Every structure is written in structure tokens, then in C-alpha cells.
Amino acid sequence: MRIQVWGTRGSLASPGTDTLRYGGNTSSVLLIGSEGEYLILDAGTGIRPLGLAIPDDVKRIDILVTHLHMDHLQGLGFFGPLFNPEIEVHIWGPPTTTQSLHTRLSRYLSPPLFPVRLRDVPRIPELHDARHYFRVGGMRIRADRICHPGATVGYRITDPNGSCLAYLPDHEPALGERHFPGSGDWTSGFDLVRHADLLIHDAQYTDQEYPDHIGWGHTSIGQLAAFATLAEVRRLMPFHHDPGHGDAQVDAMMADLSQRAPSIEVLPGRETAQVDVAPN
Amino acid sequence: MAQQPIELILTRQLASYLATPMFLVGPEGELLFYNEPAEALLGYRFDEALEIPLEEWAGAYLLFDPATGERLTIDEFPVVAALRNGKPDHTTLVYERPDGGRVPIVVTSFPLIGEGGALLGAAAIFWQDGER
Predict the structure, then answer these.
(1) Nearest CA in chain A to B11
(2) Which residues fall within 8 angstroms of residue A145, CB to CB, at 6 or more apart?
(3) CA A117 to chain centre
(4) Which of A54, A55, A94, A127 is least surrounded, with the fewest CB atoms within 10 Å of its CB?
(5) Residue A269 pLDDT more than 60?
(6) Is the pLDDT of residue A96 over 90?
(7) Under a CB-based contact definition with an 8 Å cutoff, are residues A24 and A240 in contact?
(8) Is residue A8 a contact partner of residue A169, using CB atoms and an 8 Å limit?
(9) Do A187 and B14 touch (CB under 8 A)?
């Protein structure tokens, strides 16, 4: 499988001269499976330019949403293929015990927040609860709930060729842990991430910033180094950069992470990054 | 060992911060965790390395009906009742500590039911009757 990163910023789109290299769009990643599947991970503002790059012959797109915070959803109304009746769009999102995915998506895709209702697009997308295990084409997908405020899942996506991507852009596995990391069986997200060929993971804070943001649902660089090392991932893409961090600061955080997770290849989470995810 | 469901992970984390004794079991009644206040009241240290099957841990605890003085069966343990009945349970009982001393204990137990109605385990909070 191959991934293209179209949005890597956390919390709020942050365009400007200080974010040119890592990018200002919020979470959206295109994944092309080895059998031609088109999956999109999250619908942040990066999904708008991503939609412009979809080839004309693609007739089905599956959008896997980790959770419904605005930075993961705001681009959906600007995703061109959603308005193309020749394209079948499927949206997968975390289930809750009280409200359907349609109800929760419609809060955004309706006035006063958005002029077009979900029911008014030319071909209504098919909505699915992202629950446990499912397939898209030949891709096997596991969705598990992880530690982040509100219903949130992470995804583990396995290609028929055996390559495995784990995607947990918003995750706070260290929340409440006195000594992080503990054992894997008591660590949020561990089964999703274990031995992944590529892990795309929250890296929002420096270790110095984290204590002022406990419970906000994100990870510090030191926690990420420990988590990825515990799970023995092969490659790691830090993601969901804080909107207040300019390129120089993110550079320094990437260098810090590489030093603290020496057994793992760190691929900076930059908008426009493309990575082939191959089995080990 | 497979990762525990997030609901159990967060319940355990909550328990580890509470000053109230708290006890956590899995879906088969296996002992998963109890916190330091529970250690102090029960008189047993929690061993992080083990998940103890229901029959094994329940056999080690001596619980008695305060009205009759009869020892409770495993099914009458409050956390087991909450697990098997799928609803909260509140009761008073007598606990015999390893040193032979007996203390009255008030126990509130509740099942942990996750997304899709999955029964993930049960938790019990308890305290010595008369203490605040």
C-alpha cells in the first residue's frame, strides 16, 4: 500500500509562512491499497486538495474517520467526490451508545454550520459504524476505541501483501498512568499498533508542554517514543502537530524523537509526504 | 497477552487514583486489579504479575453474612453478583482479614457494560462500615 499525506496539523488549520514545510491543513491521509482500493483517513481540511487529486476512474472511496472533532471533519463538505454521483462514497466512523453516525455527522453537515445537508448531496454516502473488524476490498481493517475525549477509534489496516499501517492521530495513552508505558495489555492502542510497518501517531506536545494539557487527548514526544518502542513498530510518522508549532519547532521535536526511539525509523509527518508501506 | 478493552484500562486508572478501596474483575470474574486502599483494608498486596481466576481469589477471601454469620458462597460475592446479574448491587457484609480480625464492610458493585452491550467485567467500591 502507499500513503500520501494531505493534512497533518492538529486541532486547527494553520496556514502561514511558519508552517510551509509541515503544512497547515488538518488530518487527512490518502491510502491506496495494492488492489487499487482508495481509502482516506480522516476528513480534515486536507481532504479538499486530496479530492482534487483523485483519478477520474476511481468509482469507490472509503473515508475512515477516527472521531468527529472538527479538525477531522471540517473538510468533508469541501470534498469534491462527495458531489460526484458517479462515485460511491462510504464513511466509517466510531459508534456511540446513543446516537447514530448519521445524526452526529449531520450536526456539521447542516445549517447553520454548513449550507448543504448530508441528504442533499447527489449520491448520499453510505455510513457505517467502524466496529472491530471489517474489510474494504482486500484491505482488512481493525477499529478499536482508544483513549481520547469522546468516541474515538484508531485503525489498523492490513494489505493482502501483509503490510500493516496503524493510524492513531489523536491519542493519549499515558493518561492516568503513573509510570508510562506499563505493560502492553494495559496500554490504550497497543494491539492496534503492535509490530506495525508504519505507525502514524499523535505527537502534539513537547514533554514540557504536556503537563499543562493532561486529559486533552494528545501525546508528548517522550510518550510517543516510549509507546512506539514498546509496540516495536518499524517506522513512525509523528502527526497532528500543534497549531502553535512552527516548522523549526517541529524539526526540533522530530530530532528529539529520533534520538529517543533509536530503534525506529522516524519519517517526519509533512504534508505532501508519500510513503510505500511494505511488509517487514 | 492481548490488550484489555479501553473501558477496563480507564477504570483501572481511575481506581489507582481513588482513596476509596476499589476492586476490578474481568468478564469471567478473574481478578484484574485492586488499588492500594483496597490492599490496606483487605490485608493482601495486589500482585501485578497475575490475573487470578475467580475460584482462586474468591476462595482466599472470607466473607460472611452479618445477619446469619454464614460464609458467603462465590455467587453471593457482591462483585460476582453484579457481574452475573448484569446490574448494580449494594450490600453490607463482614470480612475476615488474614490476621483473623473481622470488619463490617459496605460494598457497591456494578457491571461494566461497553459499546454494543458487551459485558466487560465488574467493579466494586467498598469501605469499612462506620468510616467516612
Answers:
(1) A176
(2) A94, A151, A152, A153, B5, B6, B115
(3) 25
(4) A55
(5) yes
(6) no
(7) no
(8) no
(9) no
Q: Could you give phi then psi for residue A179, rounded to 5 degrees? A: -135, 95
State residue B46's pLDDT score.
Answer: 87
DSSP A70: G
| Cell numbers found for residue A250 | 517541529
Non-local (6+) Cβ contacts of A208 within 8 A are none
Residue of A99, A129, A186, A192 to mutate for B, most B C-beta atoms under 10 A = A186
d(CA B55, CA B65): 19
- Helix A221-230 × helix A247-260 angle, to 10°: 40
For A202, which DSSP code? E
| Stretch (H or E) spanning B41 | helix B36-42
| CA–CA gap between residue B84 and residue B75 (Å, rounded) | 8
Secondary structure of residue A128 in the 3-state scheme: strand
How far apart, in whole angstroms, are the C-alpha atoms of residue A277 and residue A212?
Answer: 35
Strands (E) located in A10-93: 28-32, 38-41, 60-64, 88-93
Chain B residues near residue A96 by CB distance under 8 angstroms:
115
The beta strand positions in A82-210, using DSSP E, are: 88-93, 126-129, 132-136, 139-145, 153-158, 164-168, 198-202
Return the amino acid letter for A155. Y
> Rounded to an integer, what distance in angstroms lies between the CA atom of residue A33 and that of residue A61?
11
The C-alpha of A191 sits at a distance from chain B's nearest C-alpha, in angstroms, of: 6
* Cβ neighbours of B16 in A, within 8 Å: 176, 178
pLDDT attached to residue B72: 96
CA distances from A112 to A87, A117, A174, A262, B129 (A): 27, 10, 37, 49, 55
Q: pLDDT tens across B81-108, in order?
A: 999 999 999 999 999 999 999 999 999 9
For every residue of B72-105, DSSP letters joined together read PPGGGSHHHHHHHHTS-EEEEEEEE-TTS-EEEE
Task: Show the CA angle centred on residue B44, arms to residues B38 and B49, nearest 5°.
Answer: 95
Average pLDDT over residues A37-50: 98
Asked if B9 and A186 come within 8 Å (Cβ–Cβ), the reply is yes
